[in-house]
Amino acid sequence: MNRALLHLKAMSRDLLWAPLGVALLFLTLALTSEGVRHPATLTIWSEMILPAVGAVLAAYGAALAGDPTDPLPRTFAFPTWRLVLERFLLLLGLVVLTDAVVSLLFFVALLPATGGPWPGLALVLAGMPPLLLFAALALLLTQLLGGSTAGAAGSLAFWLGAVMFRRPAYQMPWLLFHPFETYLYASSPYYLWNRVCVTAAGLLILGVALLTLRRVPRSASPGPG
């Protein structure tokens, strides 16, 4: 717990407020637009929007735990990869918590007529594989490209490609790896295999990112919060 608080203190306040800002924007749109008040919107929120947020957090937050000016390596005698992993998991936990809270608020405030149980837990679980995938990709690209901006931009480029090119979601072998399968084709007989494959890909990329960890230039970090 103490180490988690130190991680939070070491990161930019602007970075930590980012999930809340995106959540408020999403809820504002939901309150003011009839077209957004639909159960499918929750799937878009959990599986498509939050992974992009997670990618940015991983690039600007988790990767910088390897910065030589970061105070944590001097506070704890742990290897850099462990500090990066701790911060990565902490940021993903923040995103998942935001997902659960927003899904609950959206369901209670805007979907009372559905009459069904709150689908939030299922949606949060469905959104975790793409969240892991794009956040890990951002972390890896930050290491390889030597900067958080490049890492975030690279990961978001892959994210945008997945959003734009939906046809592979219905064809093999991409059927097993498309990150947004819950929204596009949740009735697929290979849906569970898709979640397993996307999760495995995320874990593989995360492992490679930690193995290739190197110092990120301080100029790549956001300003103090």
Quick summary:
By secondary structure, this protein is mostly helical. It has helices spanning 2-10, 13-32, 39-62, 72-75, 80-110, 120-145, 148-164, 181-185, 191-211.
What does this structure look like?
The protein has about 220 residues and is an all-alpha fold. The protein is about 70% helix and about 0% strand. The chain contains nine helices and no strands. The chain has helices at about 1-10, 15-30, 40-60, 70-75, 80-110, 120-145, 150-165, 180-185, 190-210. The radius of gyration is 18 Å and the shape is globular. The two termini are about 20 Å apart.
Chart the SSEs and their pairings.
Layout: H1 2-10, H2 13-32, H3 39-62, H4 72-75, H5 80-110, H6 120-145, H7 148-164, H8 181-185, H9 191-211
Helix pairs in contact: 2-3, 2-5, 3-5, 3-6, 3-7, 5-6, 6-7, 6-9
Annotation keywords:
single chain, 225 residues, 9 helices, 70% helix, disordered C terminus
Rounded to the nearest angstrom, the distance between the terminal CA atoms is 22 Å
Beta strands, count? 0
- Overall pLDDT, averaged? 76
Instruction: Supply Rg.
Output: 18 Å
Helix content: 55-70%
Tell the overall outline. Answer: globular
The biggest sheet amounts to: none
pLDDT under 50 segments (min length 5)?
Answer: 215-225
